Amino acid sequence: MKLFPLYSHDTFGNDRMFVPRWSPEYVLTDEEYFKPQKWTYLYDHLPLTKTLEKYVDYDKLKPGGNSRMRLILTAVNVLTAEPLTFDSFLQQITLKHIPCNISLPAMQLSLDRSRRWNICMGW
After folding, report:
1. Has residue 17 been placed in a domain?
2. For 39-49, what is each residue's pLDDT tens digit?
3. Which end of the chain has fewer CB atoms at under 10 Å, N or C?
């Protein structure tokens, strides 16, 4: 059995990707900080959002945006257990599509008013 160190990304996050909601910096800004039973996500993914905004040109990720570049992403609709496919040749890829398909700790995203989840605890 492999034991995980106390000082891992699961406990403290990664400053460029995600930060745990239980971090002391959220005491004053998160209304549900002391009510974890109401949490629908464990980590704040704002650092990842900022990184994606800085480096991704979303104008090239839309139909007709760049004929030599194609991005296909997948996710799962947890309400129906159906796979979802996002294809830059068929639809505009936005900031919400990219985190929806990658394994980040307990993340909930909403696209088109329905819930899509990607859950991975990083083990």
Report:
1. yes
2. 877 888 888 88
3. N
